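Q: Sequence in, structure out?
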Amino acid sequence: MDERSANRTGFSPSFREFLGYLRVEAGLAPATLEAYGRDLRQFEEYVAERGVATPQDVSMQTVAEHLQSLHRECGYEATTVARHLATLRVYFRYLYANRKVPTDPARLIERPTRWRRLPGYLSPNQLKALVSAPTPEHGDLWLRDRTMLELMWAAGLRASEVGRLKINDYNDTLLILVVWGKGSKQRVVPIGTPAQALVRQYLAECRPHLARFQDGRDEHRLLLSFTGRPLERVAVWQIVKKYAAIAGLRDVHPHTLRHSFATHLVVGGADLRVVQELLGHSNINTTQIYTHVDRTKLRDVVRKHHPRP
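A: Exactly. Output:
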């Protein structure tokens, strides 16, 4: 939608105010703010085509039809549609609380949980192949890349989180990572021996060369680019895709390592509350999806504990 059309809808001022509130008051990360902005602009385009000019004109039916169009016409998966709904819920809740709209049109719309797809994950052997893929023949940054992949698997890190790690976030005595997640929430995650060894090697052999510039561009980040700057989220995606292809793995992205981390813990018998803490989930319902990943675990429990298995 062009700029003149956007201005006619009357949504833009409320979008700016809402996103400003999320940035200043809620302290959301830039990537999260961008996602909210994209979802709102897509909603704006949809309602503008149907003659809805202001937030006050939006009805519950309008919101529901928009979500249905995302699934049917755009082909979005349930998780993406659910994210759009979450954006609209927070947006209209904010407007209603500040008396900008007479009612909250998104409040009673149910989340499309029936569409939910289980997260993709890799087996331990596949992950070993992935994290072992970076070798010296892949260039001077192979050690950084292997360290990054090992940390993502060892601690269940998001792409934005691994790039945000600072040197002091790694404690070589306690063998933990301090991770800053969504909304600047902090969590502490222990890491295993392979990750510890790689971080030590990387800090000794690789990072000093990447941090050769003495102008503060490294921002004390743990993982750096070739230019000595912090590793960006897009670069994390590219690195994961590169070595997944080398390892012969398909449909692998940064979140696959996070899903694998959680899945292996749950399948191994970890308490769901502990997994929630390690992942930094605010709601246990988000973590519960991992209980549905491995049905063989349920059969094993029945065989072991039921009096007539």
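The two ends are 61 Å apart (CA to CA).
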